[in-house]
Design brief:
mainly alpha; 2 domains; 0% strand
Length: 305
Amino acid sequence: MDASARKPRFVAPWLDRRGRFSPLKTVVFLFLFYPGLQMAFEFVTGTIGPRPVTEVIHGTGVWSIRFLLATLAVTPLRQIWHWGDLVHVRRMLGLASFAYALAHLVFYAADSHWDLGFVVSEMVLRLYLTVGTIALVLMIPLAVTSTDGMMRRLGGLRWRRLHQAVYVIIALAVVHFFMETKAVGSEPLVEGALMAWLLLWRAGNDHRVPVNASGLPFLVGLSAVVVVGTAIAEALWYKWVSNIPVDRVLPTNWQFDVLFPIDWASLPYLIRPAWIVAVMALVVILGGVLRNYMIARRTRRLRPA
């Protein structure tokens, strides 16, 4: 085989491996730029907030975690929804997460007037920055080895073992977010709950565990556990950081009358994290049920009489 045949072929982000236009990859690829472009527009127009650089630091960090969670969600969603093409967007989601994490660090250095000595000392002395730094450092080898060529060099088994570090990374990233957030909000709790759902699903998907991790009973049970756990975690978190009694926070999860009449300005603050997690879990479950129904219907139609 000549050198030209061994040379890896570049595939544009909007094309599949056969060189055909992929609507899925195109939509995901374009969306990856949306958060950055939105922050840039708001930064330039002065609408991002009173502390623009701080808002960008926060925004890039949050989107890095969101894209990392989306990366981890690819495998369960492609199995539950029987959507094999989702695997083709996992790499770009992971690289986007790394890019936003890197931007998170760069803007933090900019906010520190590029005093790299101060930045390094803060990373060492402040525990939440140390945790975040470790997560970013662990992302580097995963980003470097994300290409098909590196996968072939490492071998499938070693490559998979290396990229299992993503579970450690997401745990560190979520802990960093919790520690950085001065007053708890829905975002860190929701991301912590999604991380728990994904990790528990992976445990259930282990071939040594005699359950069907994509089956309806397992998904309903898993989602119920995570939703209830989110409500309890929120109550305990408020008790810890603000000394608000648990029996004042926990009942808000079933006090639906707070939404009527709807105060649209306050709506984002009234929706409890457990509700958000419940809706997302419901979307996943209903998507799987609908997809299974469509597959079964098509199978019956194609079956000879």
